[in-house]
UniProtKB/TrEMBL annotation, chain A:
Family indicated by similarity: Belongs to the binding-protein-dependent transport system permease family.
Organism: Cytobacillus oceanisediminis
Membrane topology according to the record: Multi-pass membrane protein
Protein name: Oligopeptide transport system permease protein
GO term, biological process aspect, one: transmembrane transport
Domain ABC transmembrane type-1 residue range list: 94-295
PANTHER family, alphabetized: INNER MEMBRANE ABC TRANSPORTER, OLIGOPEPTIDE TRANSPORT SYSTEM PERMEASE PROTEIN OPPB
Highest taxon in the source lineage: Bacteria
Keywords recorded for this protein, A-Z: Cell membrane, Membrane, Transmembrane, Transmembrane helix, Transport
SUPFAM superfamilies listed in its UniProt record: MetI-like (SSF161098)
UniProtKB/TrEMBL annotation, chain B:
GO molecular function list: ATP binding; ATP hydrolysis activity
Predominant subcellular localization, coarse grouping: membrane
Membrane topology: Peripheral membrane protein
This protein's name: Oligopeptide transport system ATP-binding protein
Entry keyword annotation includes Nucleotide-binding: yes
Record keywords, A-Z: ATP-binding, Cell membrane, Membrane, Nucleotide-binding, Transport
Compartments, record wording: Cell membrane
SMART domains the UniProt entry points to: AAA
Annotated organism of origin: Cytobacillus oceanisediminis
PROSITE patterns: ABC_TRANSPORTER_1, ABC_TRANSPORTER_2
GO annotations of cellular component type: plasma membrane
Domain of life: Bacteria
Amino acid sequence: MAKYIGKRLLYMILSLWMIVSATFFFMRIAPGNPFASEKKLPPEIEANLNAHFGLDKPWYAQYWEYLVRIVNWDFGPSFKYKSQTVNDLINEGFPVSFLLGMEAIFIAVALGVLLGIIAALKHNRWPDYTAMIIAVLGISVPSFIMASFLQYFLAIKMGIFPVARWESFMHTILPALALASTPMAFIARLTRSSMLEVLANDYIKTAKSKGLSSGVITIKHTIRNALLPVVTYMGPLTAGILTGSFVIERIFGIPGLGAHFVTSINNRDYTVIMGVTVFYSILLLVSILLVDIAYGIIDPRIKLAGGKKGE
Amino acid sequence: MEKLLEVKNLEVSFQTYGGTVKAVRGVSFDLHKGETLAIVGESGSGKSVTSQSIMKLIPMPPGQISGGQILLNGDDIVPKTEKQMEKIRGKEISMIFQDPMTSLNPTMKIGNQITEGLIKHQNMSKQDAKNRAIELLRLVGIPMPEKRVNQYPHEFSGGMRQRAMIAIALAANPKLLIADEPTTALDVTIQAQILELMKDLQSKMDTSIIFITHDLGVVANVADRVAVMYAGQIVEMGTVDEIFYDPRHPYTWGLLASMPSVDSDDSAELAAIPGTPPDLTNPPKGDAFAARNSYALAIDFEEEPPMFQISETHFAKTWLLHPDAPKVEPPEAVKKRMRQLSSTFEKPVLVKEGK
Ligand SMILES: Nc1ncnc2c1ncn2[C@@H]1O[C@H](COP(=O)(O)OP(=O)(O)OP(=O)(O)O)[C@@H](O)[C@H]1O
Ligand code: SF4
Ligand SMILES: [Mg+2]
């Protein structure tokens, strides 16, 4: 187990290095620079600015400096906002994004699994059809449209929730719902099909032949096995929630990391773009690792490589 | 001997998009305490459906027991509710399935899969149940049972899984064990071991067994009586000797002729039964076997044959036993083994409907 995790960490560092390098070079290829704006800056000032941020040095020197700083968890200053470092932005925005993401993941998993189980247990009856209609809607409606719908009906028309901003728990519900709708629908379909597959399995018949009640069979034999694919989906789910939050945070005016990220791209704020990208990558890689470890714990057939082989 | 199980005129059908599949069409048999009945027949003949009906394990819908009675100790289980069946399943009747690779829950420890039934049926405490599970594993011949109870199915080989399945099935001391092709998925040496184990346990525990197989070779080893099924009906039933040495139904002849036997010389060809079983959505008029039967008479395509009785225990459903039927000879391979059995009646007797 320890050996397995060690190996995975090594791969993670390798992937991170590639991501950092790729972002670094793509940023340099992209036309324009952070100080290009409507107002033409006098060349002396621009040269000064470049010198101040180290942009006058050759690329390999910049690249090396950047790598060293990242290893020290220092993403440098923001080009645009003089007084803030990228670390400040992350420290400020991430807790907000994290809360939103967690809420969305919770909604997606809880509702999705519930819908899927109900649909499978009532296979080809009205609860199944209802759940699947909800799922198809959830999958086919993009989250930003879902967001506007929710804002229009639940906030503006019915006044149940605030329209936007990030002040109280009530403010978090609509954006979390909008963010959760697509993955929830996907999880519902995944759970349903995997439940149906498990229900058709011989071991369910075995369980029945022991005289267990259908409730016990569902809980002890069906759901646990049916949730294995859902656990696998948690990695991509995290990625989806992260990227989805860029747009949702903009729509609801939420001061999260996603919103900063979008702004910084518009501003060509090199250091912020790179810093946030690296930060997101770390987040994603860690969550995928956690999912894999969790999977190994839930499914006894998966022996994490490096662990002792059974038999 | 006491009758444990009596199946009377059982009819089971499935609603499908293509129409109603009549999978079991009037099956009757009984089973005594401690007896082993083998049900043989080719794929799709309704063996599994018949046996699963006895535990009411067929999926309903689409399945439905559309007629007949299943008397367990004289008590009809057909009208019983699911809640009532839960008290019978595992406790009175249990089942072993064909594929030990898929019939155990992959994410549950073997021990827990055994104790589940014990805790439910015998109100055992967790610890007692676990001790009993270890005992059962030892009984079915699994080495180091103390260690094995805590393992998962994937840590067991195929043969060991089937042993574990047997332990699960026997956990609550059922009176009837249904084994649906328990050795088909295993290789030959393991097959023999499992059969030996089942025979051994049967004599220890005095369980009755319904043993389903399409391998007649296995039958001779384990069964007291044999029922031959074809297209949802029992076409011949008798003791092992009667079926092997004095078979009367052309389908049984076909099965016997297609069975490889050690004593047959190499030149003797294995005769496969030609054709395929009929579509049970629209069973043909007359005898379901007529189209594949080289001995078929004109009447076979018109009217279903009745059951004839050849001895106290031997029944066959073929027009060939009718007094007016022409005398026919069974195929060579079968004729070679034919013997005169002392119990045979002078003449086949027509069994009256609703005997
Ligand atoms: N759930 C179901 N829905 C529709 N038809 C079914 C269902 N289960 C069984 N049948 C039909 O019932 C008939 C008998 O099937 P059964 O499984 O009893 O055959 P079998 O004798 O056990 O064959 P095998 O040796 O292949 O196990 C088949 O024609 C099959 O198509
Ligand atoms: S009744 Fe006729 S068709 Fe059926 S088995 Fe006998 S001889 Fe063949
Ligand atoms: Mg079968």
